[in-house]
Amino acid sequence: MASRLAKARELLQNRLTARGVTLSAALSAVALSPSATSASVSASLADATTQAALAFTAGNAASAISAQVLTLAHGVLQAMLITKLKIGAAIMMVVCLSVSAAGGLVAQRGAADKPAKKAAPPNQPPQMAKVKSEPKNVERR
User: Fold this and answer.
1) Is the pTM of this model over 0.85?
2) Within the chain, which residues score under 70 in pLDDT?
3) DSSP character for 19?
4) 24: which of 16, 41, 65, 113 is 20 to 30 A away, CA to CA?
């Protein structure tokens, strides 16, 4: 029976490797071993953990959790908050830079589309509009 399982593990590892999933031999043996699938948490540990989590979220953690665990949990929550703030600030910076870059491109294209006005030479006054004269073939009386 053990040799069949070993052959099956080796066949599975070869098929996974052919698809691009690489696992070390030790990792695949541990993952596929029967003891790994039978490992579970006892009911009393799960109940105690649930009660401690509920007490922590309710704010009554001092009675259910030791001071060291409480300090560690608060430190972890503070570090998670700081990380979230850093990520939010980085996202805001990227958005602001993208918007300003897009605005600069739009302004540059708008300036390139408009023809430049010819400036009058500095020593000459601007030309006045020409007044139309009377047509020549009209008779005067």
Assistant:
1) no
2) 1, 22-39, 61-64, 115-141
3) T
4) 41
User: Which DSSP symbol is given to 35?
Assistant: H
Query: How many C-beta atoms surround the C-beta of residue 93 within 10 A?
Result: 10
Write a three-state SS string for the chain: CHHHHHHHHHHHHHHHHHCCCCCCHHHHHHHHCHHHHHCCCCHHHHHHHHHHHHHHHHCCHHHHCCHHHHHHHHHHHHHHHHHHHHHHHHHHHHHHHHHHHHHHHHHHHHHHHCCCCCCCCCCCCCCCCCCCCCCCCCCCC
Query: What's the one-letter identity of residue 6?
Result: A
Quick one: tokens of 81? 């908050």
* Opening angle at CA 137, ends 132 and 140, nearest 5: 90
Query: Which tokens in the block code for residue 10?
Result: 């080796």
